[in-house]
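Researcher: Sequence recovery benchmark, item below. Answer with residues only.
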């Protein structure tokens, strides 16, 4: 009998081997055998998803709920065997999943910011799985919820609902960057914007845990948070006089300062009440004179006898600047404003060394302008530093000077040459300096000696023997006054035939001083 049973089992194995395309993976190893085929296969038909899902109920539930990776466009509608084939041997990896390349967005939960750098098993761990059937497995990527409080502690203890994203983002829990207090029942305005949250949302110990209260705060009245410093003298409606901008910022539409003995005008309207009335707004300041509140900016300079001159002579409540002191008033002083002085800002003359000065600041040009000529102009033309001999108030650069009164009369081309050409010199350090007395009147001081010293006598060239001031043509030169008068055919010979260009020690030049006049020198 045992012999026939062995033969029967051998024949069955041969028959199964002929029917089965291969061994099942280790995950389905318990389904080996002919009697188990119909658990996955329908006789006479192809493999259906229904057979797979009847066993893998956790996947079936997620597909029906249209949730998770198996409901994504990449998977939905496909046959299970497209990705999870079988009969490939015991060690075949039926779930081929590379977590480093997996697109988590296809699960319906995109990994953003801080979530994107987390290790998978920080979230895909058994303690966070909410599906009781999946929770029984040793490990799974399924069964998680998208709700934040499943993985994160709800520090608000359900007082603010479950929509964490209305206040927080995926970068970090604090600060709550998505929260906008203006969407709450208490909009933050004025100084409330800068109040730290803990001032109103206090922290308390709740069963050994720190709890910060965000709901259930009283805010219907200012007195819920602020003390009534007026002791109910003006009632409980603080907003009649105050705003959230600042306690000291009074609503002047309801508080008429004009009913007092000091009506507020100009800049006084915007002055904080505490500036005059103290921090508790109970002080009654003096106000008869400007200097009761304001320092004497002029430090006694404008006193008349023992009293300070009336400030309103130059100023009013609209502002200290600009001054009300007009040009007409200035022109009645010892220094009338004319020319460019009319366009000069007041501080250029009156603001010196951080102080405003109005008296005894000087009337001469050099009291404001430095004498840039130093000692280059003689006292004959600038006695007592009187700039008006050459300049005027209209424009500094428009010089009115008679050069013919000097020892160098301007003739010819010199009369149309700009002053800078002769009088402005650039030094080695790059600075420019005006020169007058120190200038040499000799021609070579400005012009190069193209004759290379041929006509120099006692270190100077008398250029005017040959040239005039109109141009460089030697119109005064007379060859007959030289040691070689021109006669006969020599009169028609061009100058360059005799006066050749020669190479000097420093440069080339035309030689005019000929030492040897013998005929053989030129004619041979």
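Model:
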């Amino acid at each position: 009998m045992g012999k026939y049973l062995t033969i029967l089992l051998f024949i069955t194995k041969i028959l199964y081997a002929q029917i089965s395309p291969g061994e099942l993976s280790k995950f389905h190893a318990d389904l080996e055998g002919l009697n188990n085929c119909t658990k996955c296969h329908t006789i006479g038909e192809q493999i259906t998803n229904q057979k797979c899902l009847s066993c893998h109920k956790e996947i079936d539930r997620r597909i029906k709920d249209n949730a998770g990776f198996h409901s994504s466009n990449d998977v939905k509608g496909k046959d299970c065997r497209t990705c999870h084939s079988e009969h490939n041997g015991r060690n075949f990896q039926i779930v081929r999943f590379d977590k480093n390349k997996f697109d988590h967005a296809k699960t319906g939960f995109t990994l953003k910011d801080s979530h994107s750098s987390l290790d998978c098993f920080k979230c895909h761990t058994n303690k966070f799985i909410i599906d009781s059937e999946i929770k029984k497995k040793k490990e799974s990527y399924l069964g998680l919820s998208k709700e934040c409080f499943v993985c994160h502690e709800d520090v608000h203890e359900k007082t603010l609902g479950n929509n964490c994203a209305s206040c927080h983002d995926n970068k970090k829990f604090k600060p709550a960057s998505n929260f906008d207090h203006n969407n709450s029942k208490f909009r933050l305005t004025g100084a409330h914007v800068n109040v730290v949250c803990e001032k109103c949302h206090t922290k308390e110990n709740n069963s050994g845990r720190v709890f910060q209260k965000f709901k259930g705060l009283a805010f219907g009245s200012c007195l819920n948070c602020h003390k009534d410093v007026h002791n109910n003298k003006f009632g409980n409606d603080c907003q009649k006089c105050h705003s959230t901008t600042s306690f000291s910022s009074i609503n002047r539409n309801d508080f008429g300062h004009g009913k007092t003995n000091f009506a507020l005008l100009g800049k006084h309207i915007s002055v904080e009440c505490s500036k005059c009335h103290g921090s508790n707004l109970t002080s009654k300041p003096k106000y008869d004179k400007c200097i009761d509140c304001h320092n004497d900016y002029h430090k006694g300079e404008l006193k008349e006898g023992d009293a300070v001159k009336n400030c309103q002579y130059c100023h009013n409540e609209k502002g200290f600047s600009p001054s009300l002191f007009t040009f007409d008033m200035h022109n009645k002083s010892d220094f009338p404003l004319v020319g460019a002085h009319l366009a000069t800002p007041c501080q250029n003359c009156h603001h010196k060394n951080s102080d405003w000065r109005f008296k005894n600041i000087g009337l001469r040009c050099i009291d404001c302008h430095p004498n840039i000529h130093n000692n280059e102009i003689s006292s004959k033309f600038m006695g007592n530093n009187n700039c008006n001999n050459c300049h005027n108030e209209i424009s500094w650069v428009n010089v009115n000077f008679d050069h013919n009164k000097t020892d160098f009369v301007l003739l010819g081309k010199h009369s149309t040459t700009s002053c800078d050409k002769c009088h402005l010199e650039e030094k080695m350090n790059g600075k420019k300096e005006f020169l007058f007395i120190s200038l040499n009147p000799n021609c070579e001081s400005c012009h190069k000696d193209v004759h290379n010293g041929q006509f120099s006598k006692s270190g100077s060239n008398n250029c005017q023997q040959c040239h005039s001031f109109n141009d460089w043509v030697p119109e005064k030169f007379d060859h007959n006054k030289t040691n070689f008068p021109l006669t006969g055919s020599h009169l028609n010979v061009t100058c360059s035939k005799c006066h050749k260009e020669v190479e000097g020690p420093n440069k080339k030049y035309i030689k005019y001083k000929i030492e040897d006049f013998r005929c053989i020198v030129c004619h041979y």
